[in-house]
Amino acid sequence: MEWQSTPYSLLLFLAGGTSLLWALYGLRIRRSDGPKPYVTTFIVLSAAVAVWAVSYGFQLAIPTLEGKLIVYSLLHVGGVLVPPAWFAFAMTYTGRDDWLTKPIVAGLLVVPLSLLIAIPTNPYSLALTDVTLEMQGSITVLSVTTGPLYLLFLGYSYVLLLAGLALIVFDTVRSPGPIKRQGLLLMTGASVPFVVNVLTVLDLPPLGIVGINLTPVSLALSSVLFGIAVVRYRLLDLQPIGWDVAMAQMEDGIVILDTAERVVDLNPAAKRLLGDRTPVVGLDAESVLPSYERLASGEPVSMQVTESDGNDRVVQLTRSRLANADATYGWVIVFQDVTVLEQQRQQLIRQNERLDAFARGVSHDLRNPLTIIDGYARLAEETGEPQHFDEIHETVSHMSTFLEDLLTLSQQGQTVTDPQPISLESVVRGAADALSEHDLEVRLQADAVILADRKRLRQALDNLFRNACDHSEGSVVVDVGLLENGFFVEDDGPGIDDDALETVFETGYSTRKAGTGFGLAIVRDIVDAHGWAIEATRGVGGGARFEIIGVETESTLESKY
User: Fold this and answer.
1) What are the DSSP calls for 311-350, one per residue?
2) Which of 92, 269, 263 has the alpha carbon at shortest distance from 178?
3) pTM over the 0.90 mark
4) Over the stretch 531-559, which tens digit does the pLDDT of each residue have?
5) How many Cβ atoms sit within 10 Å of the Cβ of residue 531?
6) In this predicted model, what pLDDT tens digit does every residue of 82-137 receive, in sequence order?
7) Most buried of 270, 353, 363, 384 (most Cβ within 10 A)?
8) 92, HSE (Cβ side, Cα atoms, 13 Å)
9) Would you give the DSSP letter of residue 503?
10) Cβ of 105: how many Cβ atoms within 10 Å?
C-alpha cells in the first residue's frame, strides 16, 4: 500500500500512544483498587481519544480516496465517544456518578451512535453531503462537507463539553485552594480541545487554515491533564472533587499531613478551630497542633480551643494513616467537636460529687434521729412516761419530712420535661396559698410570661417561701419582682451570713437544728434543669434575696417565635 509521509501523522500517533498509555494506567488502577466510576470514565475517554488520534494519523498517511473513507469511518468509532465520555468523566469526577443511570447513558449515546451508523452508508446525505481530495502543501487530505446529522452531532458535542466544564467550574470555585489547582487542570484540559475544534470547523486562523484537524492532538494533552488529576487523587486514595467539596463542608476539622508530617491541606472547620491564624500550610505539625507528640503515639488528645468567632470549644484530635496497600502517603488529623460530651462529663462529675456529699449527709442525718428514737424508746420502756413518746413522734415526723425531701432531690435528673409559656403571677399565688397556715405575705411587684415547667417552678417557689418562713420569727413578707433577664425572691428575715452565700445551695447545708439541708439544694437543681442560674445575696432590708437569671420572658419569646 502506498503511503504519504507527513509530520502530522507522527504527531497524531504520538498523541494516540500517550492517550493509550493513560488508558492502560487507568486499567491498572482499576484492577488494584477496584472499580471507581471516575477511573472507568477516564479509561473510556482516553481510549476514545487514542482510537481517534491513531486512526486520523493513518487517514492522513493514506493517499487514496477509498482508503481515506474506510479509515474515516473507523476514526469516528473513537471520535463520537469523546463528548459523552468527557461529560460522564466530569460527572463522576465531581461525585455525581449516581446520575449516570442506564437510561441516561443510553440517552447520551443516541446521537453519537446514530452518526456512527450513518457515516458508512450515508442515507439521504445525512452525515456527509460531499467528499473530495485536495492538496494541502505536499500531502493529499480528505475534504468533507457535513450533512445535518453531523451538524447535530457537533452541536450536541459542544453542549456536552460545556456542560461537563460547568460542573467542574461549579465545584472548583467552592473548593479549598489545593483542590482549585486540580480543577484548573480539568478546566484547561476541557477548554483547549474546544477552542481547537471551533477554530478548525470554522476555518479560522491559525489552526483553521492548516487543513488538518488537530483536535485529537489537543485531546491527548487533555488526557495528560486529566490523568495527572486522577493520579493525584489515586495516590491519596480519595474521591475527587465531589469528596473535597464534602470535606470542605464538614463540621469536623480535617488536617492533611505529608510523610514528613508537614501540613499540606486543611478544611475550613480546622481553620476555625485553629483560630484562623497565619497560613499553616507547609509548617511542621508540632508547631501547629498542640500535644502532637502524644497524638503521633496513637493517643487521642483533647484540648480547648477558641474559634475565630470567639466561642470556646472542646475538641478531640485523632490521627490516622493515609495509605495504599503498604505505602504511607501521609496522615489525617481529625478535630472532633466534643464540647457537648465534655459538658455532660463535667456535669456527671459534679453530680457524682454531690451524690458523694449527699450520701455522707444522709448517713449522718439518719443516724442522729435513729439514735434519738432509740434513746427515747429505752426511756419509755423504763419509765413509761408519755413525753418520751412525744419526742419519738416528733423525731419520726422530722424523718418523714427528711425522706420526702430526699425523694424529691433524687428525682431532679428528670425535673424539667415540658417547659411552656406561663404566668409568673399564677405560680407565685399558688405557692403562697399552699402556705396559708404560715404567717406569710407574698407581694408580686409585676407579672411576666416566662418559659418554664409549671410544676417544677412551683416546687422551687414553695421551697423558697418555706425557707423564708422557717428562718424568720413571727410574720414574714416575701417580695417577688422582675429582673432584666429573670426574677428575684426577697424576704425581710434575718438574711444569710456573708460567708454562707456560696454554700447555702449545697446538699445538707442548714442553719436550723431540725432542717434537712435539702430545700435550697432542690431549688438549685430545678433552676439548673431549666438552664437558668441562681445566686444568693442580701436584700435591701437585710433579708435573704435569691436572684434567678437567664429566664426567657415574654419579650424574648416573641423575638424568637
Assistant:
1) -EEEEEEEEEEEEETTEEEEEEEEEEE-HHHHHHHHHHHH
2) 263
3) no
4) 899 999 988 888 999 999 999 876 544 44
5) 12
6) 899 989 988 887 778 778 889 999 999 999 999 999 998 899 899 989 988 888 77
7) 270
8) 22
9) T
10) 12
